[in-house]
Design brief:
- Its main location: mitochondrion.
- Its EC number is 2.1.1.64, 2.1.1.-, 2.1.1.114.
- By secondary structure, the protein is of the alpha/beta class.
- It has one domain (2-11, 23-36, 65-311): Rossmann fold (3-Layer(aba) Sandwich), CATH 3.40.50.
- The chain contains nine helices and eight strands.
- It has an eight-stranded mixed β-sheet.
- The longest helix is centred in the middle third of the chain and has 22 residues, at 95-116.
- It is globular and about 45 Å long.
- The chain starts with a helix and ends with a strand.
C-alpha cells in the first residue's frame, strides 16, 4: 500500500508547471515531508520473456556480483570495454546517448544554474564550480560541461573508455583541462575528493549495488551540493521500448546492453537517495519523437527519467 501511495504522489507532483523547460521556474517539484516505505523495492511484476531469453540476457542478476567495497559489476564493465572505441561514433552503439545529450544538458543547465544562482544564458554558467562525471565513458557529457566553464573530473572503471575520452578531449583546448581518471566513485571517496555537483547519467542501472553506489555519490557531494542521476524506469513500457524495440527490433543498442531487473522505479530511486542524504527536488521524463529524431523533456517518467537532488546539510 505504501508503495502505491508513494507512486501516486510521484505522478501527482511530477506535473509540469510550465510548457517550456527553459523557464527558470522548476517544472517538476517533489516535496516529501515523510516517506514511508517498508521495502527497498516495489512489487512490480516481472514482464513475460520474449522467447524466454531477453530478461536474463546477461545471466545472473548483477546484484549477485556485489562486492563489499565496490558497486562495480564486472559483466557490465566487460560489455562497455568491448565497444569503447565507438564512443564518438555518432552512428554507432552510443548513438542514443548522442541524440539524448542536448536534452540531458538542458535539464542540467536549468537545474544547476538555479541551484548555484548562476545565469543560464551566459556562455560559461558553471565557471568556478567543480563537477564529477561518474561513469563518464568516452566523455560525451564531460566535454560540454567543461565548455560551460565547469572544472570537470571524469571517472570510469573501464580503462579503454578513459583513454578514448582523454584522446578526444585533447583535440580541443576547451576540453583539454578535463581530469580523466580510471577509478571508481568509492575510490574517490577514499581519496576524500569533494565536488559541487555529482553527475551519474545512464550509469546506476549498470552497477551491482544501487544503494552503495548512491552512498558514494552522496559522499562525493559537498554539503548543500547537487546530484543529478538519469536512468530507466523498471516498467513494462520500458521493457518493451528500451530492450525489445531498441535492442531486438531496431538494433539501436547491442543486445544485452540493459537488464530489466537492474532498472529502478522513480519511487525506489527517490527513497534510495533519501537514505543517502540526498533530497530529490525535481524529476523529468525523456520522451523520444521518432518523426523528428529528437528527445524532449516531459512529465512522462514511464521510461527514461532524470532527477536532480540536493545534499543535506552535514
Amino acid at each position: 500500500m505504501a508503495s502505491k501511495l508513494l507512486l501516486s504522489r510521484l505522478r501527482t507532483l511530477a506535473k509540469p508547471t510550465h510548457h517550456r523547460f527553459i523557464n527558470p521556474t522548476p517544472i517538476f517539484t517533489l516535496k516529501y515531508q515523510t516517506l514511508v516505505h517498508s521495502r527497498p523495492y516495489s512489487d512490480a511484476p516481472q514482464p513475460p520473456p520474449i522467447d524466454s531469453k531477453p530478461p536474463s540476457i546477461n545471466g545472473d542478476n548483477p546484484l549477485k556480483n556485489k562486492k563489499i567495497s565496490s558497486s562495480l559489476n564486472q559483466t557490465e564493465l566487460a560489455k562497455f570495454s568491448a565497444i569503447a572505441e565507438t564512443w564518438w561514433d555518432a552512428e554507432g552503439p552510443f548513438k542514443p546517448l548522442h541524440v539524448m545529450n542536448p536534452t540531458r544538458l538542458a535539464f542540467i543547465r536549468s537545474t544547476l544554474c538555479r541551484h548555484f544562482g548562476k545565469d543560464p544564458n551566459c556562455a560559461k554558467p558553471f565557471e568556478g564550480l567543480k563537477f564529477v562525471d561518474v561513469g563518464c565513458g568516452g566523455g560525451i557529457l564531460s566535454e560540454p560541461l567543461a565548455r560551460m566553464g565547469a572544472t570537470v573530473t571524469g571517472i570510469d572503471a573501464v580503462e579503454k573508455n578513459i583513454k578514448i575520452a582523454q584522446l578526444h578531449a585533447d583535440l580541443d583546448p576547451g576540453t583539454s583541462s578535463i581530469e580523466y581518471l580510471c577509478t571508481t566513485a568509492e575510490k574517490l571517496v577514499e581519496d576524500q575528493r569533494k565536488f559541487d555537483a555529482v553527475l551519474a547519467l545512464e550509469v546506476i542501472e549498470h552497477v551491482a549495488d544501487h544503494a552503495e553506489f548512491c552512498k558514494s555519490l552522496s559522499a562525493l557531494t559537498v554539503s548543500n551540493g547537487a546530484t543529478v542521476i538519469s536512468t530507466i524506469n523498471r516498467s513494462m513500457r520500458a521493457y518493451a521500448t528500451a530492450i525489445v524495440v531498441a535492442e531486438y527490433i531496431l538494433n539501436w543498442l547491442p543486445r544485452g546492453t540493459h537488464q530489466w531487473s537492474s532498472f529502478l522505479t522513480p519511487e525506489e530511486l527517490v527513497l534510495i537517495l533519501q537514505r543517502a542524504s540526498i533530497s530529490v527536488q525535481e524529476m523529468a521524463g525523456f520522451v523520444y519523437n521518432p518523426l523528428i529524431g529528437k528527445w524532449s523533456l516531459f512529465d512522462d517518467i514511464g521510461v527514461n527519467f532524470i532527477v536532480y537532488g540536493t545534499k543535506d546539510s552535514e
